[in-house]
Amino acid sequence: MKFFLDTADLDEIRTGLDWGMVDGITTNPSLIAQQGKSYLPTVREIARLVPGPVSGEVLATDPEGMLDEAHRLADLADNVVVKLPLSPVGLKIAAQLADEDIETNVTLCFSAAQALLAAKAGATYISPFVGRLDDVGQSGMELIEQIVTVYENYDYDTEVLVASVRHPMHVVEAAILGADVATVPFKVLAQLYKHPLTDAGLDRFLADWQKTGRSFDD
Ligand code: G3P
Question: What is the number of the ligand 1 atom nearest to the C-alpha of 27?
Fold first, then answer.
């Protein structure tokens, strides 16, 4: 399973890369706005820092504007993936970009029907938002299960990128279901490492050895 960081914070990205667990980055307008920086330069800077795919989202909603922004994003660097909203216009542009060999990430997916359309359009990634579905009392993971099944039934190449991840169990459940990617906030990446028994076990090992009064070398 690939892990992407869902952030536009360069410090978080540097730390995640240093830990060796970050395969790519997803951004969205809200995440870039939080950084208080300019839009395109931020995507460019992230793409320079990260060897893997970096999703940058279009802001336009009309076909011409969307295509123009998609090309400007794709021109920033080879690893930029153009993020498009799930709408008739978004999927039309996704199909056009697929013909041009430009990778796309179709975002704001909340149903298996939408995911099926994105695969038919030739999207590289589909981003179902599990946390936001859970928030309104629907099961995000049920949606992942449906999409994985549908894509397997028809051998679609579109990768299932689980987004709106809120806690480690979202990641584990997505992995059990065979999702290709989980994009996680930095906080969730850090939580994945943690278990109280690991901390307690390490404390006990070190304390037991310290009692002997010996060092590593003797
Ligand atoms: O990148 C989009 C997605 O992951 C947003 O997550 O927590 O705002 O629902 P959230």
Answer: 1
Q: Which stretch of DSSP H or E encloses residue 84?
A: strand 80-85
Centre of ligand 1 from the C-alpha of residue 9, in Å: 14
What does the pLDDT profile of the chain (218 residues) look like in tens digits? 999 999 999 999 999 999 999 999 999 999 999 999 999 999 999 999 999 999 999 999 999 999 999 999 999 999 999 999 999 999 999 999 999 999 999 999 999 999 999 999 999 999 999 999 999 999 999 999 999 999 999 999 999 999 999 999 999 999 999 999 999 999 999 999 999 999 999 999 999 999 999 999 98
Catalytic residue among 83, 120, 187, 211: 83
Sequence ranges of the domains in the chain: 2-212
Q: What is the DSSP track for 30-45?
A: HHHHHHTS-HHHHHHH
Q: What separation in angstroms does the CA of 36 have from each of 9, 41, 42, 100? A: 10, 12, 10, 32
State the fold for domain 2-212. TIM Barrel (3.20.20)
Rounded Cα gap, residues 96 and 172, in angstroms: 34
Q: Catalytic site residue 120?
A: no
Q: List pocket residues of ligand 1, CB cut-off 6 Å.
A: 6, 26, 28, 129, 131-132, 163-164, 183
